[in-house]
Amino acid sequence: MCGIIGYVGHRPAVPVVMEGLGRLEYRGYDSAGIAWIWQGALNIARASGKLSALESKLATMPAIMATCAMGHTRWATHGEPCERNAHPHQSNDAKIAIIHNGIIENYQSIKNSLQQKGYIFKSDTDTEVLVNLIAEKRKTEPDMLHAFAAALNEARGAYALCVMSLDEPDVIYAARASAPLILGIGTGENFIASDIPAFLPYTRNVIFIEDGEIARVKASDFEIYALDGLQTVEHAEQTVQWDIQAAQKDGYRHFMLKEIFEQPRVISDGLTGRADACSGTVSMPELDNMPVPEKLHIVACGTSYHSGLWARHLLEGIAEIPVQVDIASEFRYREKLLASPGENAIFISQSGETADTLAALRLAKKHGLPVMGLCNVVGSSIAREADMTVFTQAGPEISVASTKAMASQMLALALMAIYWGRRKNTITSAQCKELVSSLFSLPRLLDDNLPQMREKARELVQKYATFHNFFYIGRGFCYPLALEGALKLKELSYIHAEGYAAGEMKHGPIALIDPSFPTFAIALENELFPKVKSNIVEAEARAGKVIVLTNPGMEVKADDIWVIPGVKSPLAGLVVLPALQLFSYEMADYLGKDVDQPRNLAKSVTVE
Ligand code: M6R
Questions:
Q1: Which of 26, 351, 547, 591 is such that its CA lies 20 to 30 A from the CA of 292?
Q2: Are 192 and 6 in contact (CB under 8 A)?
Q3: Nearest to 602 by CA among 81, 131, 122
């Protein structure tokens, strides 16, 4: 959580940093701030609330000509969201400023010892403790680099940090421990940020800073040091393929809407090079050198967890691989990980930085499980720590609510199931061909149907926007989609929603159904349709209103029927998904909620 960016170069730094913060705001948006050094003084501007509040504040100031600046957009961990707790924080002597993404776990004991030395703290944050620790170390260390390293050697926890000092006004120091930090390398200018889109208009050449490293960044060059010993470290420069177009709204009202409508493209990109429409085959060269897993653990959080639950139906159904799906925040504290040879674990994460998923991956590695990442962000922590990673190629996902990333994960997992199914011979080449052909039909089908789906979602929202509770129900592969539909409604429109396996309703939840508690039922054309239909009838018998998402020709009665095109199960999930996303999107927009940046959330959950 939190976005940080530092710039040092030849341009006016404050506008560059503010622009970068705009592209990092998805990481946190309860306050923002910026620091720059000008004419021998350290300046800081901060504002509570969204970045626009900081922009308004800066607009009242004379033009700032500094060419070195750093900025922060916050998702509160320590201390309430208010200006006093907003970053940057500065040392008591007003010589050093810091911005921080993460948590310093031992901040209280450091704070106590600094207070005994006379330090005064104006905020409730762990970050203000760290900047004063650096200032304290600077009294005895020969330069900022050594003072920074000495302070970090005492700090425990997770961080991505940038530090500026009056000692060296044209330098930004940065360091990383379990939080993303990327160096963007320009010509006569350099950037350091939590995520690549922050500096994408200026450069696509990057270095991923590793845990335990410090970067010293100047306009013309940079050095990277190992925190332990301060010897210099060399990293190869990489070029990222994302372009700035992909990180902009492109005329859509919200990023979320744009990203929902990008799903046909995401599916066709994900198929390119992995599936062949003519021969009906799937190739996943990344997986060629590993044996087909005898059992799979899938571990993830939130929407990525729902992808895993959905994929279990394919991996078991197509490749006959037993699958256990776990929530990462639970998996990471498993007392015993009973894993046998032949088992593999897949860690799904759009960002590749989710703290719980990363900790779960480390636990699995410790227990000797081969670990695979399924990530969208190249160079992310999970991608780098996994034994191997499959990339989902969804492009940057900016909206906090995950949409196209889920579609890309589902596609990659479907391809894995087909690929392993062929290697194990659990499906014939004809069955493979049929599945591949269904996958290739999806982009066109979605392109043709998404506009109507949006219209239907709008129509339903006008009818259901006054309800405060919803059930989402489904069976089989539609159950994870019901969970996802409920999650989307909750996080975007703040309407209480529960996803349930339709067959579980009678074991308790059905008691809640009355005219004020509608049910969104996913009842597709498959062998479970009659069962879901019975559950719909049961809800209606309790005077509950029901919306049914179904396929053409299915006989079902309900208050509202929403017909979407049928596709071979469980790939039909890729058509159900945008319908659920659009319903939540339209609901949130209709209710006037902040669609792209829902309250209390952040895109990348890098704290536990
Ligand atoms: O980056 P990850 O895929 O690891 O993120 C996992 C969840 O935090 C994420 O899917 C979250 O649930 C989204 N807000 C859902 O829209």
A1: 351
A2: yes
A3: 81
Catalytic residue among 2, 68, 162, 478: 2
Looking at ligand 1, which residue's alpha carbon is closest to its atom 12?
Answer: 302
Residue 301 CA: nearest ligand 1 atom is 6
**How far is Cα of residue 212 from the mean position of the Cα atoms in its chain?**
23
CA of 25 to the centre of ligand 1 (A): 16
Which residue among 354, 361, 378, 597 has the greatest number of ligand 1 atoms within 8 angstroms of its CB, and so is best to mutate? 354
Atom of ligand 1 nearest to the CA of 603: 14
pLDDT of residue 66: 95
pLDDT score recorded for residue 587: 98
What pLDDT digit, counting tens, does each position of 194-217 carry?
989 899 999 999 999 999 999 999
Which ligand 1 atom sits closest to the C-alpha of 604?
1
Does the annotation mark 2 as catalytic? yes
Measured CA distances, 141 to 95, 176, 213, 214, 565 (Å): 15, 21, 19, 16, 68
SS (H, E, C) 383-400: HHHCCEEEECCCCCCCCC
Band of residue 245 on the pLDDT scale cut at 50, 70, 90: low
pLDDT of 348 higher than 90:
yes
**For ligand 1, atom 8, which residue shows the shortest CA distance?**
302
Cβ neighbours of residue 520 under 8 Å, at least 6 residues apart?
A: 470, 471, 472, 473, 482, 485, 546, 547, 549, 583
SS3 category, 412: helix
Cα distances from 167 to residues 146, 478, 572, in angstroms, run 13, 60, 61
Residue 406 CA, ligand 1 centroid: distance in Å: 9
pLDDT band for position 81 (cuts 50, 70, 90): confident
pTM of the model: 0.80
Distance CA(601)–CA(517), nearest Å, equals: 26
User: Which among 304, 357, 409, 490 is the best mutation to test ligand 1's pocket, defined by most ligand atoms within 8 Å of the CB?
Assistant: 304
Residue 554 burial class via C-beta count within 10 angstroms: exposed 0-12, middle 13-18, buried 19 and up = middle
Q: List pLDDT tens digits, range 82-102.
A: 899 999 999 999 999 999 998
Question: Cα(242) to centroid of ligand 1, in Å?
Answer: 21
- Using CB distances shorter than 6 Å, the residues near ligand 1 are 301-304, 349-351, 354, 357, 400-402, 491, 601, 604-605
User: Between 247 and 57, where is the model more confident?
Assistant: 57
Average pLDDT, stretch 381-409?
93
* DSSP assignment of 244-301: GGGGS-TT-SSHHHHHHHTHHHHHHHHHTTTEETTTTEE--GGGTTSPPPSEEEEEE-
Task: Check residue 179 and give its pLDDT.
Answer: 86
pLDDT at residue 423 tops 70: yes
